[in-house]
Every structure is written in structure tokens, then in C-alpha cells.
Amino acid sequence: MAKKSPAPAKTSSAKGAPSIQIGISDKDRAAIAQGLSKLLADTYTLYLTTHNFHWNVTGPMFNSLHAMFMAQYTELWNAVDPIAERIRSLGHAAPGSYAQFAALSSLKDAPTTPPKALDMVRILVDGHEGVARTARALFSLVDKASDEPTADLLTQRLTVHEQTAWMLRSLLEE
Fold first, then answer.
1. Residue 138 in contact with residue 154, Cβ under 8 Å?
2. Angle at Cα 78 formed by Cα 76 and Cα 84, nearest 5°?
3. Which CATH number do you get for residue 107?
4. Which residue of 74, 104, 146, 147 is surrounded by the most CB atoms within 10 Å?
5. Phi, psi for 23 (deg, rounded to 5)
6. Largest Cα–Cα separation, the chain
7. pTM of the model
8. What CA–CA distance (Å, rounded) separates 146 from 139?
9. Which backbone phi and psi does 108 adopt, to 5 degrees?
10. 2-11, 77-86, 120-129: which has the minimum mean pLDDT?
11. What's the domain count of the chain?
12. How would residue 147 be classed by pLDDT, with cut points 50, 70 and 90?
């Protein structure tokens, strides 16, 4: 019995580029990409704040916080590319300007005057919890669309942000 050949790809431009046919509707892909754009903006904003605090932390906890913040901003830096690439895989442009990130992010920008060390920790706890809320808010849409790759990405990000918030919060206990 001969195998059926796949249906020809639909084209979406005059150049003949095939349209995206991955089993997720255009509407759902757009909504997921929009949610991931918010996650990307939150992640990048938190990255900048964490890097800022790494540079500007002072006081008796300098060595430990300086090293901890470096590990955290490195992890955040490594997270932005997979988020942006998932947006691209869904057929949408990833935001990449400060103006776009400022408009999309749910997080406050870093203070212009560096706060005291433990205030930095509090701000980062709030930031990681904020990113976790942004990621979690996407799950119902991702589940409805059967978008397992995005669900996997969200699960990974939630694990990191919830664990980092816990570790930072532990520094604030007396």
C-alpha cells in the first residue's frame, strides 16, 4: 500500500514561504506569543535589576550577595533566548527594545539610587514572584492549545523563580 504524501504546504507570502501548520491556531499562537512577550520583558527587567544589584551591593554581606546575584543574573541572561526563540517558533516577532520591555513588563524598574543590601533582596524576591505570576498566568491558554513545548518552558521558569524567591526570602528571616 502506497503512503499518502502530506498535503502541500500553504503559502503565506509572495515569496512562497509556507504558513505555520503546527496544530495550534493562529489566534492561540498570537495569544501565547503575547504572553511569552510579557514573560520575556519581565525576565529581562529582572535580569537588569539583578545585574545592577550585583554591581552596587555593599555592606557586611557583600561577598555572598555579590556572588549570589552574579549566579542569578547569569541564569536570567541564559533564560531570555529560549523565551524569545519560542515566540519566534510560534511565528511572531520577539520584543527586544527597552521601550517594548518597559511597556510589557509587570515589574518595576531598578531604583535609580542603589538600595541597602537587604532591600535589594526584598526587591528581587518581589521580582521573582512577579515573573512566576506572569508565567503561571499563561498555563490555561497553553494547556487549551496543547502547546507542550511552551508548557515545558513555563514549568522550567516557574521552578527557577519560585526556588530563587524562596532562597532570597530565607535571607530575610531573623
1. yes
2. 95
3. 1.20.1260.10
4. 147
5. 90, 10
6. 76
7. 0.89
8. 10
9. -75, 150
10. 2-11
11. 1
12. very high
